[in-house]
Design goal:
This protein has 28 helices and 7 strands. It is mainly alpha-helical and about 600 residues long. Among the domains are: about 200 residues, Tetratricopeptide repeat domain (Serine Threonine Protein Phosphatase 5, Tetratricopeptide repeat), CATH 1.25.40.10; about 190 residues, P-loop containing nucleotide triphosphate hydrolases (Rossmann fold, 3-Layer(aba) Sandwich). The strands form 2 sheets. It has a 5-stranded parallel sheet with strand order 3-5-2-6-7. Strands 1-4 form a two-stranded antiparallel ribbon.
Amino acid sequence: MDNEYHNLGNSLQESGKFDEAAAAYKQAVDLHPDFSWSYHCLGDVLVKLERWEEAVCAYKKAVELNPDFSWSYHNLGDALLKLRRWEEAAAAYRCEIALNSDFAWSFCNLGDALTKLKQWDEAIAAYLKAVEIDGDLPRIYDKLGFVLGQTTSDLKLVLEQCQLQITPENWEFYLQLGKNLGKYDRPNSAIILYNILLTIAPDCAVVSAELEQLLKQQEKCVSTLASSREIVAQKPDDCWSYYNLGAVLSHQKKWDEAATSFLKAIEINPDIPWWFYYNLWEVLVKQNKLDEVENLYRGVIEAKPEAFWPYLNLGEVLTRQGKIAEAIDCYQTASYQQTLASIFVKNTGKMPVTKTTDTVKFPNFIIIGSQRCGTTSLYTYLAQHPQILTPIKKEMDFCSWHFDRGIDWYLAHFPLMPEGEEFVTGEASPSYFDCREAPERLYSACPEAKLIVLLRNPVDRAISQFYRLRELNWEGRSLDRAIKDEIERLNQNPEYIIGEEPGNYLARGRYIEFIKNWLAFFPKQKLLILKSEDFYANAAATVQQVLEFLNLPEYQLSEYQNANPGSYLRVNESVRCCLSDYFKPYNQELEEYLGRKFDWE
């Protein structure tokens, strides 16, 4: 009877009836609990159903019963990766490799787990072994370039330890690896690799050209660093001179000096909204400096308990330390102070809110994007409406990058709502628009929220985003190089959207993909799609359109000043044409899908 259930499970799985197949395999294991293959097949079906925890249990039972079957270890590792249980995943892949050392994906996936654990040298060895077996694995060059960009180990030593030799057969791989080392800010390692290649083939024009370009970039880096140090010497009391020096140092992987510069910037002016500058936090986390920042802000708050920004910045520090409950308390204090001030300004004579009697509500509206399309200006104009109370910061990025921090963390940013008053609140996180998980997450938390999206000519949006990140010292590449890198990345994985770090200049402009994703969860009447060019041409009219959408009374501002302007020289026409050609099919599909013209040609 147990074989019948097992065979039934096989048939149902082949037919795509995974729920029924899971039930059949469970019957099989109930009747014959010592048959490892039924557990393995049950795990496979549960993976297809994305029931990761149950799949892990099934695979663990399979390897317990048959510890010599490598494939169960591999699938167990895959399920554990999905659950972000990196150490357990790495252990599972090592067990598989001990049984079968010829499967490239095992080494590649082991490298993924080790990368998450920041065990860089071991990850490098795993990826290089994967390449030795199969050099055509998707994104393997990006992965290797990234981990080599994190380690401080000497490249020659890494190659010697991995016992890999450069030969005519693997020449192309090492050439591509050199390019990725340059892309991930390891120019010294790339230069070493290119010099090794030139000792083998001194007349190779491609290697010579890449080496020459890197040497020029290094010369520019030296000049930029010297200039930043000179500005600090001229303005030793200016927080921005230290911040910019820290950003330059971080680009060049000089982490200790970068952390020192960032700490000095915070010390000079703790009231700056430092939570916004992700590269600052990246360095402080990497160098274990969060305790110092926490102590600094606690001292500031003790001296100025009525402060606002120090509470918010301390909340950010505590959040990154995993002290969510303490962070929430800081956010709530900052929110209370801001709400109190806002109500007095907007409603003179009204009773202030209290922490005990008033409540926090979910946002009534959310500006979900897109980046560099006018979201900051629109949010700024709406914040001045007498019936809108804003959260303590514009971008929480909860449904995109910080969902693991929990709903209480999110709500702690929002204002207390006085009883009997007709206030509304809303936030603006442009990272939501292109995050594939955001629509479902937001719908589960705030299904009644009204959504606003601004869409700009994707060519102008991409260029504007690039130069904005250059201005913030977050992007160190040229525009040409950034576009080329992203085209390569998207060719390997068209759906690959990276997180906070620079990139996505092209991917974020494929609006049609994201609009469809949002409309799969929210009805059309909940989504207001605005054209950025119309907003720029007549901000007052667009704001009035938004107020009508939110059922709020008209409110005119004395002026509508651009709240987040960008400026840069006109880019080369060939770059614009390249971008225009790339976006053309996506723009056409968007117009057909929405039944409206955007005229972005």
